[in-house]
């Protein structure tokens, strides 16, 4: 039962309420504002030549978004077709530069699409330890070329990387010469306190910052962004000009129009309010079933820790029989699973459907024999 925070597997038959992470919350989308953005984008004259870095209006809108919501100043934004597509470009660029397979470090458990990109490129992938706060920096082995990290909301365990670890990670990247790739997949979604400084703000010379519209809006736009050190950005754009590969501009134009009339800002405010309420509903339901929750007050999913792989499989299967799709942690490990549990998301279904699904889930963990870890 695959899943990822890019919301994959649209062809998977719908078997019930989907509480796997990765989908946006479309219930709060203002359809009138959305339609206006599409009409405004459609009224623009066709471009005469390709913009390899992206549509200027889109780049400006994202730079403003990153300043306002992520504290990233003077970001030189390059458009991508999404987080995975941007990472794929970076890995190809680095492989060509090195003239050998990339030696990459990836959080374990971590983002399996990043692992897929690395394996497809023939990279040597090293599993990196994580705990409740995210990446354990002191355990990084020497000799890495690239480290892929999710500091705002570690995927999938949900920890927030402390400032001291962020600083130590940037210092190690500088000292050892590896590139940090910061996947900020839902960094805008915090419900309690202001976000911590993004890695790209602490180390703009060694960090590539990746973001996507797929979690805050919809993957139908097919747009994301990256902010990279100048040398990396220049090399990426040179590669695009040489190959003609670039992200499609249509979604960029819609995003820019949506941001320009304030639709994006209003949407984010509604989204935070709604997802905060939904998180409380999920936490209450899980705790009522006698279980703990793992994950910071952020994002759109949490983890219910379980004692064993058998308990994890039993809960996933029992939830499916109850008409609810949830994710197991096993598939997010690079090798044998060391942490067990299920991921429960709350963004995808309408709130009323979420409430009904939680009612069906209440007896699942205990009934499946899963004990808290």
Overview of the molecule:
The chain is α/β, with parallel strands linked by helices and 373 residues long. The chain has 2 domains: 17-29 and 264-367, Aspartate Aminotransferase, domain 1 (Alpha-Beta Complex); 31-263, Type I PLP-dependent aspartate aminotransferase-like (Major domain) (Aspartate Aminotransferase, domain 2). It has 12 helices and 13 strands. It has an 8-stranded mixed sheet. Strand 4 (124-131) and strand 5 (134-135) form a beta hairpin. Helix 3 (83-98) packs parallel to helix 4. Residues 1-13 and 369-373 have low confidence and may be disordered.
CATH evolutionary superfamily of the largest domain: Type I PLP-dependent aspartate aminotransferase-like (Major domain)
The coarse silhouette is: globular
Rg, please?
Answer: 20 Å
**Share of helix, binned:** 40-55%
Estimate the mean pLDDT confidence.
91
Overview in brief:
By secondary structure, this protein is α/β, with parallel strands linked by helices. It has helices at residues 31-43, 56-70, 83-98, 112-120, 163-176, 199-202, 230-243, 249-260, 263-288, 309-321, 351-361, 364-367; strands at 17-18, 77-80, 103-108, 124-131, 134-135, 146-149, 179-183, 207-212, 224-227, 301-305, 324-325, 327-328, 341-345.
Task: Outline the secondary-structure elements.
Layout: E1 17-18, H1 31-43, H2 56-70, E2 77-80, H3 83-98, E3 103-108, H4 112-120, E4 124-131, E5 134-135, E6 146-149, H5 163-176, E7 179-183, H6 199-202, E8 207-212, E9 224-227, H7 230-243, H8 249-260, H9 263-288, E10 301-305, H10 309-321, E11 324-325, E12 327-328, E13 341-345, H11 351-361, H12 364-367
Parallel strand pairs: 1-11, 3-4, 3-6, 6-7, 7-8
Antiparallel strand pairs: 2-9, 4-5, 8-9, 10-13, 12-13
Helix pairs in contact: 1-8, 2-8, 3-4, 9-11
């Amino acid at each position: 039962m695959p899943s990822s925070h890019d919301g994959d597997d649209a062809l998977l038959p719908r078997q019930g309420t989907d509480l796997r992470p990765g989908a946006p919350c479309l219930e709060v989308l203002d359809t009138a504002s959305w339609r206006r953005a599409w009409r405004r984008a459609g009224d623009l004259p066709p471009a005469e030549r390709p913009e390899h870095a992206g549509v200027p209006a889109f780049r400006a809108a994202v730079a403003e978004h990153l300043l306002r919501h992520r504290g990233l100043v003077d970001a030189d934004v390059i458009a991508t077709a999404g987080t995975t597509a941007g990472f794929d470009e970076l890995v190809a660029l680095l492989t060509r530069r090195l003239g050998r397979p990339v030696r990459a470090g990836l959080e374990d458990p971590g983002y399996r699409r990043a692992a897929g990109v690395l394996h497809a490129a023939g990279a040597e992938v090293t599993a990196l330890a994580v705990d409740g706060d995210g990446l354990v920096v002191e355990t990084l082995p020497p000799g890495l070329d690239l480290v892929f990290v999710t500091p705002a909301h570690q995927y999938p365990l949900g920890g927030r990387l402390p400032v001291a670890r962020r600083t130590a990670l940037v210092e190690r990247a500088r000292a050892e010469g590896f590139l940090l790739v910061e996947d900020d997949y839902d960094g805008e979604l915090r419900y309690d306190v202001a976000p911590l400084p993004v890695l790209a703000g602490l180390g703009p010379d060694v960090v590539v910052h990746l973001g996507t519209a797929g979690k805050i809006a919809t993957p139908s736009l097919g747009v994301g962004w990256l902010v990279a050190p100048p040398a990396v950005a220049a090399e990426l754009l040179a590669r695009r000009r040489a190959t003609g590969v670039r992200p499609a501009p249509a979604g960029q134009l819609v995003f820019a129009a949506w941001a320009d009339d304030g639709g994006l800002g209003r949407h984010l405010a509604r989204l935070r309010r709604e997802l905060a309420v939904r998180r409380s509903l999920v936490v209450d339901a899980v705790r009522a079933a006698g279980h703990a929750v793992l994950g910071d007050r952020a994002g759109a999913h949490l983890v219910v820790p379980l004692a064993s792989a058998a308990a994890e499989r039993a809960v996933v299967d029992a939830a499916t029989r109850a008409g609810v799709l949830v994710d197991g942690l096993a598939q997010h490990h690079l090798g044998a699973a060391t942490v067990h549990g299920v991921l429960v998301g709350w963004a995808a279904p309408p709130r009323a459907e979420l409430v009904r699904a939680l009612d069906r889930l209440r007896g699942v963990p205990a009934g499946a024999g899963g004990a808290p870890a």
